[in-house]
């Protein structure tokens, strides 16, 4: 890329608001209706409501559709949009396919649960829509491959919703490391603290009125409805997501792939512990990755390196000349025993973002891929999937990066994809 505790409340309020990561620049200018990008939002609770607020704040955007298969979420989003733009006439839908059928929709945003990400994006590409998709990119490796193929086939634009990518700190970390100030990086340590909530026992019951549970499950295996599996806490079940690890991987791995672009992954070895309660995503997970000339570690506790203990999430780069530690908003560089927060003499070589959502809008209008584009996001996301496969199988795995398959391991390769539930293979 050349131009490059309430956990949910914390990440949304502290990590986004305090860092200014809404990234919706305000403009005094007005934009003619004919020049506006017509956007529809699919999945509009939680992060989806943030999508709505962000794009509603861009003068170049007109919101023309809202979709959620929970009628309560849809009603809440419609009221929010009405409060922001009283004259807006966006239509509401339960089934996202009705949005894709509309010829007047230019682009969609997707903030559904993880197991829906790829089908929504691929079908949007097929329908001629561009996509701003929430992280993680896909539920599994095969889906990411299919997304990239479809995006290229239909000549579409895609931006991954890694809003932190637009921040000054990640830009500067990438510049400092790429300048060679700490030398060639041989080891990277990533971590995220925090355990999942203890869920259960499962409270199986009829779905609440207004929720289309069958469609919520979609391509995932069938389960009777239980509140623990739905909405926010879905992420702690491997049928739909990958727990705290999958929730946070791309937020912090992003700065690593941007700064050094790890290549030729060959070995993955994960260990972890199943959680208490009914969820089955790992309570904690530690992973070793072997790349070409690089060792990368993920841990669920801070590593034993200077400055890590005061950061709940972070990246630690060990170079031949020094080290750099960072999180979303801070960094410390240590060279020859001297620690500093910046190296002013290193020039700014990476073009700064105009704002994450604005970058997507500009990319759509110019027909150029944005900063957090699909090809980049797929490379950065893939090791996350492979780490979870090693955890699920309980053993070390060996990877062929050219074929994107495990070596001589049918069980591991079987977990690179998943057959959709009968009737829900929509692409």
Automatic annotation (TrEMBL):
Segments forming domain Gfo/Idh/MocA-like oxidoreductase N-terminal: 37-161
InterPro entries named among the record's database cross-references: Gfo/Idh/MocA-like_OxRdtase_N, Gfo/Idh/MocA_oxidrdct_glycsds, Gfo/Idh/MocA_OxRdtase_bact_C, NAD(P)-bd_dom_sf, TAT_signal
Domain Gfo/Idh/MocA-like oxidoreductase bacterial type C-terminal, chain residue ranges per copy: 204-425
Record SUPFAM superfamilies: Glyceraldehyde-3-phosphate dehydrogenase-like, C-terminal domain, NAD(P)-binding Rossmann-fold domains
One Pfam family linked to the record: GFO_IDH_MocA
Gene3D superfamilies, alphabetized: Dihydrodipicolinate Reductase, domain 2, NAD(P)-binding Rossmann-like Domain
Protein name: Oxidoreductase domain protein
Source species of the chain: Emticicia oligotrophica (strain DSM 17448 / CIP 109782 / MTCC 6937 / GPTSA100-15)
């Amino acid at each position: 890329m050349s131009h490059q505790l309430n956990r949910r409340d914390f990440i949304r309020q502290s990590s986004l608001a305090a860092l200014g990561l809404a990234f919706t620049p305000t403009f005094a200018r007005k934009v003619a209706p004919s020049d506006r990008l017509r956007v529809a939002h699919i999945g509009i609770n939680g992060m989806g409501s943030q999508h709505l607020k962000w794009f509603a704040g861009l003068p170049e955007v007109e919101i023309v559709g809202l979709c959620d298969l929970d009628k309560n979420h849809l009603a809440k989003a419609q009221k929010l949009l009405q409060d922001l733009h009283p004259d807006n006439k966006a239509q509401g839908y339960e089934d996202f396919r009705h949005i894709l059928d509309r010829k007047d929709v230019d682009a969609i945003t997707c903030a559904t649960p993880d197991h829906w990400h790829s089908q929504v994006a691929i079908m949007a590409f097929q329908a001629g829509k561009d996509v701003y998709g929430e992280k993680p990119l896909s539920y599994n490796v095969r889906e990411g491959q299919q997304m990239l193929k479809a995006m290229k086939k239909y000549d579409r634009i895609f931006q991954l919703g890694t809003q932190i990518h637009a921040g000054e700190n990640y830009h500067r970390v990438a510049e400092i490391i790429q300048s060679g100030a700490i030398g060639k990086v041989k080891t990277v340590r990533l971590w995220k603290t925090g355990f999942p909530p203890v869920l259960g026992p499962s409270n199986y019951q009829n779905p609440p009125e207004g929720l289309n549970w069958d469609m919520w499950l979609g391509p995932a295996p069938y389960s009777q409805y239980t509140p623990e599996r739905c909405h926010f806490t879905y992420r702690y079940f491997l049928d739909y997501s990958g727990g705290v690890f999958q929730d946070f991987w791309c937020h912090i791995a992003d700065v690593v792939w941007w700064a050094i672009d790890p290549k030729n992954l060959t070995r993955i070895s994960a260990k972890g512990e199943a959680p208490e309660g009914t969820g089955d995503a790992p309570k904690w997970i530690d992973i070793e990755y072997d790349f070409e000339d690089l060792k990368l570690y993920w841990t669920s506790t801070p590593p034993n390196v200077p400055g890590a203990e005061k950061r709940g999430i972070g990246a630690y780069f060990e170079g031949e000349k020094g080290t750099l530690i960072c999180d979303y908003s801070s960094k410390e560089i240590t060279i020859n025993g001297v620690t500093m927060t910046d190296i002013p003499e290193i020039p700014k070589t990476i073009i700064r973002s105009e704002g994450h959502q604005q970058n997507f809008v500009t990319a759509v209008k110019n027909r150029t891929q944005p900063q957090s584009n699909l090809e980049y996001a797929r490379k950065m996301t893939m090791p996350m999937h492979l780490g979870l496969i090693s955890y699920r199988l309980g053993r070390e795995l060996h990877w062929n990066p050219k074929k994107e398959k495990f070596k001589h391991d049918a069980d591991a390769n079987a977990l690179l994809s998943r057959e959709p539930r009968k009737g829900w293979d929509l692409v």
